[in-house]
């Protein structure tokens, strides 16, 4: 969450409460919420939970100006896109790329995040590098992914970034002047 530092000047409200921990049951869960009012993204509520007994930690983001469940599609074409596109991913979002070949399922792999696209690609490369013990075809795919993700990181490989978020709390913010290239589809969320 290093990148949030730059946004902190827009914080318009902060609260902190203590609650029961969903993991260990002790009343040592601190929930800290901050509302950021950013001209760039709109209003975001960031919540961090932390249990001092068992170490449980969770973070989530609520996009207060959300228009509802959304599928965001953005074609990343060059280094400008990599450096200057911002990604806000809520914990409920699925982030994937059919052509670069990765999927971050909801809730997994680092929960909510606010990062330039560059930071997301770095993280994917780190995950792939940490994945040991694969053999044959799977290992070949892992090595190919690391190579292709590094090309994408440097702007030498185009790919499509897709975020599906049933809460509508995720955002892709393209570089200035490229906003029109972002495809925004409303998602149908099954009732149940
Ligand atoms: Zn706990």
From TrEMBL:
Superkingdom classification of source: Archaea
Domain Zinc finger ZPR1-type: start-end pairs: 19-174
Record keywords, A-Z: Metal-binding, Zinc, Zinc-finger
Cited InterPro entries: Znf_ZPR1 (IPR004457), ZPR1 (IPR040141), ZPR1-like_arc (IPR004470), ZPR1_A/B_dom (IPR042451), ZPR1_jr_dom (IPR056180), ZPR1_Znf1/2 (IPR042452)
Any one GO molecular-function label of the UniProt entry: zinc ion binding
Pfam families: jr-ZPR1
Region entry Disordered, spans: 167-192
Stretches with biased composition (Basic and acidic residues): 176-192
Family label: Belongs to the ZPR1 family.
Record protein name field: ZPR1-related zinc finger protein
Organism: Caldivirga maquilingensis (strain ATCC 700844 / DSM 13496 / JCM 10307 / IC-167)
């Amino acid at each position: 969450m290093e990148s949030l530092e730059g946004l902190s000047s827009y914080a318009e409200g902060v609260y902190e409460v203590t609650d029961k921990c969903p993991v260990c049951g002790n009343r040592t869960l601190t929930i800290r919420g901050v509302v950021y009012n950013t001209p760039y993204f709109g209003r975001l509520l960031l919540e961090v939970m932390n249990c001092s007994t068992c170490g449980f930690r969770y973070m989530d983001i609520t996009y207060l100006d959300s228009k509802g469940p959304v599928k965001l599609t953005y074609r990343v074409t060059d280094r400008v896109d990599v450096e200057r596109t911002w990604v806000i991913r809520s914990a409920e979002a699925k982030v994937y790329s059919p052509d670069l070949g990765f999927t971050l399922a909801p809730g997994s792999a680092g929960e909510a995040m606010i990062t330039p696209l560059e930071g997301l690609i770095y993280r994917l490369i780190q995950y792939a590098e940490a994945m040991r013990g694969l053999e044959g075809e799977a290992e070949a795919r892992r090595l190919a992914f690391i190579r292709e993700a590094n090309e994408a990181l440097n702007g030498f490989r185009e790919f499509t970034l897709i975020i599906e978020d049933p809460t509508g709390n995720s955002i892709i913010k393209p570089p200035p002047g490229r906003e029109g290239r972002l495809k925004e589809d409303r998602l149908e969320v099954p009732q149940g």
